[in-house]
Amino acid sequence: MPGVSVKIKNTSKGTITDGKGDYAIKAATGETLVFSFVGYNTQEIAVNQATINLTLTHNANKLGEVVVVALGLSRNKSELPYSAQTLSGAEVNSNRNTNLLGELSGKIAGAQIKQANDIGGSTNIVLRGPKSLSGSNQPLFVVDGVPIDNSSAIELGGMSNVTQNQRNGKGGYDYGSPGADINPDDIASVTVLKGAASTALYGSRAANGAIIITTKKGSKGLNVVLNTGVLFGSVDKSTFAQYQKEYGAGYGPYYDPNTPGSHFDYTDILGNGTKQLVVPTYDDASYGQKFDPSLLVYDWRSLDPTSPYYHKQTPWVAAKNDPSTFFNHPYTFNNSLFIDGGTDKGNYKIGYTRSDDYGILPNSSIGKNLFNFGGSYRLTDKFTVEASVNYTQTAGKGRGGTGFGGQNGEPMNLLQNFREFWQVNVDVQDLKDAYFRTNTNDNWNVKSPTDLSSAYWDNPYFVQYQNYETDERDRYFGNVSLDYKLFNWLDILGRASEDYYNEFQEQRINVGSVVTPSSYYRLNRTYKENNYDLLLNFNKAITSDISFKGVLGLNARRQNINSISASTNGGLVIPGLFALSNSVNPIDYPIEEVDQKVVTGVFGGVTFGYKDFLFLDGTLRRDQSTTLPDKNNTYYYPSVAGSFVFSSLLKDYTWLSNGKVKLNYAEVGNDAPSHSINEVYDKAANFGSEPLYYVSTVRNNADLKPERTKSFETGLEASFLKNRIGFDFTYYKNNTINQILPVSVSTATGYDGLYVNSGNVQNKGVEVTVNGTPLKSDNFSWNINVNFAKNTNKVLSLYDGVNNYQLAAYKGGVTTNATVGEPYGTLRGTDFIYKNGQPEVDATGHYLFTSNSNNNIGNSNPDWTGGVFNAFRYKNFTLSFLVDFSHGGSIYDVDMVFGLWTGLYPETAGLNDLGNPKRNPLSQGGGVILPGVYANGAPNTTRIDASQNQSAYGYQTAPNKAFVYDASYIKLREAAFTYSVPASFVQKIGAVKAIDVSLNGRNLWIIHKNIPYADPEDGLGAGSAYQGVQLGSYPNVRRYGFNLKFTF
Amino acid sequence: MKKIIITLLTAMAISGCVKKDEYLNNDTKSATAVPASTLFSYAEKQLSDVLATSAYNVNIFRLTAQQWTETTAISESDYDLKLRNVPDGFWNAIYVNVLRNLYEAEKLTQADATLSATQKSNQLAQINILEVYAYAVLVNTFGNIPYTQAVDYTNTTPKYDDASQIYDSLLSRLDDALSKLNTTAPGFNTADLLFNGVNEIASWKKFGNTVKLKVGITLVDVEPAKAKLAVEAAAPNALQSNADNVSFNYLTTTPNTNPLWVDQVQGHLIDYVAGATLVDLLNSLNDPRRPAYYTAIDTNANPQASDVLVYKGGAIGKVNTYNKFSTFSNTIAQPTLPSLLADYSEVEFDLAEAIERGFNVGGTAAQHYTNAITASITYWGGSASDISTYLANPKVAYATATGSYKLKIGTQKYIALYNRGYEAWTEVRRLGLVLPLPPNQTSYLNRFTYPITEQNVNEANYSQAAAAIGGDNIATKLFWDKN
């Protein structure tokens, strides 16, 4: 294995293995060689022969290793006074998932990671609970010391209202998280810093924690690694709608006025003077006629002149191919080539990865080219230059719409169509044939036999092939650093870095769609961030017992986000021509946004060590930000942390390998979003020649102060029996106070929100990881790693006189809130009236519910989360799997609200307690008894009608609370089987040094969940306010991969 | 070497610092100062839009007045205001889009030292008349609302004021505004999108008096003395003919078209059909306005050229099939359809009622009633013979039509207020017309429930207001509703 550090114990002599894994070192017999590599067990072997060969074993327990912490500084993990969890590159890229962010889930204690299920969907990462009441709770991403932007499109702004409204569950596209531009194949390690003490030196932007990524470095010689992988996938049917197959199109038995109880129209579509039985194509529900193969009807196909069924009757049956057959089997090709090498003077690495993802929606794909270059060179003994540059090109097409789409020019969300409004008699393969026959919107949901335009929904194939979005992002990030060793106790490091990207997004709605007018929308955005750092690193022992390390630094950050967007007005003149010039009316003004920010920081940190068991850290940083008012724009924040490595004093107890107590306190400040100080007016389109302006709907505030997070953390780490078993326990408490947020207020103030300093949100909790190697022999080993986290979130106070902050509002009057005394993210809505804990029904057998909509009906935070990782190795075979789980939390499921109302789900059909079809009229023994009690407490015995859409199920007959589900789950997240072809065999092939073959799977099995027909992890998109609501939810995709890795 | 490196590193660090002379937090693409007139224009358009739109999450009054009804998603016709958060939509549109900008225009106008005293006082009067108009709409929709503490960001939890006290204040503000209008100087001139600078201040006098007449007559059942005073003062100065109608004239291209056209025509919706209540009434009177109001349809299952087209409305609050009923006419389905804020016909109906109430406004009830109907039919394109035939109908003629004066005037006013859903709904409640109830309801929609957001962000004041009006539900009657 290349790059392994080989040292002679208790000396400074050492080397690293070359590209072939060979090494040479001069050592005396009796000395001990120490072999170490990130992510592997360190091994010590006494020198007693000329050649020592060994295989390092993969290790989940990483006590004793060096970890990279804030600002690229490295620390010995055993002395670290705060918790930092490190994953090796192998742990995040062995699955060959093209998105790094999703790979983190289940592997980090206390991290809630939700990746949207659609292709390239955004990933929501919250460390130790949500702290910020508004905006982002996302951690800072840092790659080799360079902060990398991971803001979702909504956070960046500059979008039309269409996208801003996604926050409230309205339609839009999920353009994903730009953090996905980081190449997983280039990662050497990922360190997750969760507490403020660990990130204090990063300043305000790491208030939500930081994810520190170290990329691979070149090692001696020439090393070539080629990975070629392919992933296949399939929709997990337990997370998609299942349909009742008994009744077809319609809302109820009322279609023909002359035929009571009719589920069909009686219309002469043949023009022969007689009436035919015609399916109500214009209605998007399945409360119609009971299926009967002997009944012949005219359905949508018989209205379509291009259809082979035109003017032909077909049997009235449930579709053979329901919407689950709309989904493609997704697949991914992912190939990468990494070359690295080095000499005594320097090293380099260069990599290229090409990945192609094809999603579950037809015509959806994301292609990426990732180039990575890094090198360092020692000009003199004292002077080292390092540089890295990365270029990522992403091209997306056909991402799926999210939320409640299809209105006001918003894209259609097909999942909403399939889950909420559908006719179960419609066969998706017929729709496919219809679309590809004509390339037009030949559709099931037409307005009438004489008007074949679409009523509410398009042919889904038309949506994917004609109304698709495309997006491109070209991104560069990299840095240049100079390191000069002025004295042997003082290093000077200067670093300049840039993260730059250029985005281009296009949205199309072609002529012929339900969404009218047709339109073309485009957005161009550039994002640029530069960081300039100057760091002085001191490292000097004060006495033989007291060590001292110090850092003194300057950081200047400049950020510039610049966007322009425009759309056609009044429709497209020529169908299929997507250009602004193809607008029916002159286009409105483009929307321009310029967002600039400069933050300068001065900071210092000291670490004192006493012998090898007591360590004390202190840091202080001063930031000055342009987004705060001049009078308040400077803020300081300190941290102090200590650790006591008690095992160093207990060396006699050989069963104790390592033991440490850590304790720390930190305060972190944060600045305001850009443009939240000065009042501005917004521009509306001119009315004729009269200009129109309006007051911005969020009131800014010239008196804003920096916000602060106060964080306390303590913990105990220990390992035993030569590190065979170990644990890490952390308790923390964070309070975020004086939050800068656009507090939602009564709109009778004339504003939707006001920027204020407000609130105190507390997160406290515990994180526990336990790892062990229960079995270990030359040929066999078993490693297990368990992590568990429980976070309790509470809103302690809000703005003066305000005890509730409304984060988002959804259909049906449901809102997501932060309420004083409650956790952040409570759901409010209408609730049942309860009698003895049972829902009460009225005398007619219908549920009673509250008239007010501010009842607490759920909480989007889980009670606890965790994961269990097991790895078994037998000779060259390794089998590993990860099970993760989340307990508690709620989801308001809008798909059930409407899907039940339109009669799609099996709950709405079948037999009742009498054994009769529920949907039969009451007079024929149909109907259902809703579970509940009367006002007198006696159980409900009144059977109510269930024959049509407003009768027994769905939103009109039950309060919001009835559609709140428990979000708990247990998932088999990952399984991998790897085989390293034996070296003896590989050597015969020649140039190849190692071959690893792996089979892996991701999101394989949802072992347990409580929400029907959906994946409890799927949300509306990135941003905390979205959590706890599902609407047009995408199904979970199981992925199976095969990867071949050649090392040359 | 050392020096070079240190200098280099220091230079690198310093190059990133903030330069004193750049203030980077300015929003360089937004205006920090604008003319008051641009805010006034915007508020006028927003007020017109919210009253004209048929978006079911903002304005559902055509449904509650039963001019229209819904097809499959019938929640609003069935008085379910929560599904689409309708009260939030309507409330926000008026407080945030209309009133906020009028208050800001008022502040900027006050501070404008370049205006002549008369123009300034004209502009302030124009702003105040629109504010009164907007507040009256809110009160007539919700009952008690934030007023004295409203539109003030320093008070994030405004208290709700008593609706009748708000009415008192509105009347005195109108008197003040009317006394400040001076025809020798312009007001907002062409930025006034209602009159576009033509006869501007004279027109505003008529408009202001019409608002006063409407506010006054609304009080008639609760405070007849105040009503009498206001109505008698306003009547002679209100709109005199259809030529005086106050309308917002939309343009041919989006986004400045009539919002109803945007929703229904451009959006190709099939969510609404004609409501049986109004259609049946028009049919029973053989009303000449039917073709202007609705489409006629062929109800024959096997359509023949010889079929007689009929006007047919869908059942209220029940599911209806779109293509089996009439829908709004081509006259309505125009991008440039003006949105009426006040018309001569309603003035004449108010005067007819005033006579019956014993107020001294001149003329007879029958004359004003006839004038009102004549004005309405004329407005909708009817001919003189249409009018005379119609007025000769004994079910229409004031002398022979059945019922109390409230029923007679109410019925014809209800017909005339087609496509002005909010006004029709208000007059139905005020004049005590009895409309059929949707199947699941036991009361007519007497008011909107308060926005759900108020329950979440202004809870104490919300609860107080709910208790003060007699419960935050749709059955609670407004203070002026004594029917």
Would you give an account of this structure?
The complex is a heterodimer of chains A (1048) and B (483). With 1048 residues, chain A is mainly beta. Chain A folds into 3 domains: 1-56; 143-235 and 330-400 and 469-823 and 861-892 and 968-1047, Maltoporin, Chain A, CATH 2.40.170.20; 247-317 and 404-455, no CATH class. In chain A, the strands form 14 sheets. Chain A has a 22-stranded antiparallel beta barrel. Chain A has a 5-stranded mixed beta sheet with strand order 7-13-14-10-11. A 4-stranded antiparallel beta sheet of chain A has the order 2-1-3-4, with no helix packed on it. The N and C termini of chain A lie close together (11 Å). Chain B has 483 residues and is mainly alpha-helical. Chain B has one domain (36-71, 81-260, 336-468): Serine Threonine Protein Phosphatase 5, Tetratricopeptide repeat. Helices cover 48% and strands 4% of the residues of chain B. Chain B is built from 18 helices and 6 strands. In chain B, the strands form 3 sheets. Chain B has a two-stranded antiparallel ribbon. A two-stranded antiparallel sheet of chain B has the order 2-3. Chain B has a two-stranded antiparallel sheet with strand order 4-6. Chain B is globular and about 100 Å long. The mean pLDDT of chain B is 93. Classes of the chains: A mainly beta (1048), B mainly alpha (483). Chains A and B meet through β16, β27, β28, β29 and β30 of A and α1, α2, α4, β2 and α17 of B.
